[in-house]
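Exercise 7 asks you to align residues with tokens for two separate proteins.
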Amino acid sequence: MLTGSYPMSVDTKARITLPAVFRKQLVEGDNRTIKLVPYGGRVNGFTPDGFKAFVDSLFAVNGEQYDPRSAKQEKLKRGLTARAVEVDIDSAGRVALGKLDANTAGTREKFGLVGEVVVVGADDHFEVWNAEEWAAEQESLDEELDALLYHD
């Protein structure tokens, strides 16, 4: 389970260093590959198996599974998987966020992933947030957490 939040800086080559505790959970033997997927105002990082499970879960509703004969489901699945970028965690534990721009120009700027960011554990994946957006998200979360944790 990936947990915690870690302030980081994007270096001049558009890379971030993943926290060591995340690397231990994401790297499996020689497999250092992850999928970066921009959506929801942040970039989400999954193992390849984790990404497949995530995509499959989106279509598992009310006991139903993905239907390749559904034009709408096919379009949504294709759109999501097309946004995914495969990157390797290098020997220093860095991830090249710049590869997002190779897939779709301007992605990093759109998501504010320049300068200061926060790498966040989100259970089965990690997220990379613009630091200011993360601070605003956390500020608004306090009341919602209290409502979740306490029923009175």
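Second protein for Exercise 7:
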Amino acid sequence: METNLPFSGRRKLLRAGFSLSALGLLGGCDLTDNDPVQKVLKSVSRWNDQVQAAIFNPNALAPEFAESQAVRDFRYNAWYGADLAPKLSASDYRLAVAGLASNKKPWTVEELYALPQVSQITRHVCVEGWSMIGKWSGTPLREFLTRIGADTTAKYVGFECADGYYESLDMPTAMHPQTLMAFRLSDQILPNKYGYPFKIRVPTKLGFKNPKFVTTIFVSNQQPRGFWTDRGYNWFSGI
């Protein structure tokens, strides 16, 4: 299914869908403890995911901004304090590749940073209600998927992280030209608290779909779980 909705129009529709499924989170235990209501809420969430996936245009770009608009002191955000962020060393780190890919060799930080890189100045939108513009630099994820011989006809790309986080993307989003393996923030090697050696930067998704401290990338036809999806949020979560 294709659509000619402009990007701004799609964002309004996606927000409406997300808000609908979020009603269950706002209702408290009386709702979530009621099995019939819980089933309805899950059904609505699945419907929202299907609608968002159907109207996603893999060629439509998220807005980009002037470098003067990029914030250098980017906001830290995680469910734990910055002092508890994993401290990964370049000498020990290896990115694992799994699933439907022909080349599963592990990647060192040096090898990752030698990949072709681009920059983007895009807005990070958090489900908590704040947003921030930052300059991110790194390798398009689709470039990496090509190099590992990923089956790009598969449905999903999943990520496992050093902090216990886990997330996944539909393949069209993974192959979107603005989806990056971000190695730098504000032209500096990605600081530890933001996900060194890299995070996945997805400007077409809400912030929790941008995993940090990635240690494994896998390709699958079975929909992977998501950390916050397991806690009630929409899986697709586009903006």
